[in-house]
Design brief:
Blueprint (H helix, E strand, L loop, with lengths): L6 H17 L5 E7 L2 E6 L3 E6 H4 L3 E2 L8 E7 L2 E7 H6 L10 E5 L7 E5 L1 E7 L4 E3 L13 E6 L5 E5 L1 H6 L1 H4 L13
Length: 187
C-alpha cells in the first residue's frame, strides 16, 4: 500500500491549484480557426467540443423560415444544438463543407446550445507571439461587439479575436428568423 493517498489531501491540493490558476494571469492561448477567408481566435473557455461536420451532418435538420446562415439543428449526444455557418453569418460567404470542416460547440456555461461551422481548425495560437494591427470589420458595416482585436502572426497572417460570449448575445445572432417570415407563411 505504498501508493495509498488520502482523498481529502488530494481534494485540498486540487482546490489550492485551482485557486492559484484562477488568480494567475489570463491564459494567452487561443484556438485558431478558419471560417471562409477569415481567421479567428477563440478563447478556450468559450469552446465546448469540436466535432467533424461529417459526424453530425446526417443528423442535422433544416429549420424553415430561418436565415441562410442558420443551417438547422443537430442532435449531439441527445442534445439539440443550433448550427450556424460562421462565415456566412460574418461575411456573407458560405463555409466550405469538406473533410476538414468542423463544428465548434459553444461552451455549456454560456447556455447557448449552438455550434459554429468553420472550414478548418488551425490549432492553438499564443497571443504573446502576435502583433496588434488594425483589421477591417468583417461585417462590412458598423463595428460589432463580438469582433475583438486584430492581430498578425510572424507569417503575416491576419487574425481577429472572436468573443463567443458577445456573439451568442448579439441581437443579429439571436434573430435567426427570416425577415418577413411568419407562422402563417408556412401554412
Amino acid at each position: 500500500m505504498a501508493n495509498h493517498f488520502s482523498l481529502r489531501t488530494f481534494q485540498e491540493s486540487l482546490a489550492q491549484r485551482l485557486r492559484e490558476a484562477s488568480a494567475g494571469p489570463a491564459p494567452t492561448s487561443r484556438l485558431g480557426v478558419q471560417s471562409g477567408g477569415d481567421y479567428w481566435l477563440l478563447r478556450l473557455d468559450e469552446v465546448g467540443e469540436i466535432l467533424p461536420l461529417s459526424d453530425v451532418a446526417g443528423r442535422m435538420a433544416p429549420v424553415p423560415l430561418t436565415k441562410s446562415w442558420y443551417l438547422g439543428v443537430a442532435n449531439v449526444r441527445g442534445n439539440l444544438v443550433g448550427v450556424v455557418d460562421l462565415s456566412l453569418f460574418t461575411s456573407g460567404v458560405p463555409a466550405s463543407r469538406t473533410a476538414a470542416s468542423r463544428l465548434v460547440l459553444v461552451a455549456g456555461r454560456l447556455q447557448a446550445h449552438c455550434a459554429l461551422l468553420v472550414d478548418r481548425m488551425i490549432g492553438l495560437r499564443n497571443l504573446e507571439r502576435l502583433q496588434a494591427m488594425d483589421v477591417e470589420n468583417t461585417s462590412g458595416g458598423m463595428p460589432v461587439s463580438w469582433q475583438g482585436a486584430g492581430l498578425r502572426d510572424s507569417n503575416g497572417q491576419a487574425w481577429r479575436e472572436l468573443d463567443v460570449t458577445a456573439l451568442v448575445a448579439d441581437e443579429n445572432f439571436l434573430h435567426a428568423g427570416r425577415d418577413g417570415a411568419t407562422a402563417g407563411a408556412a401554412a
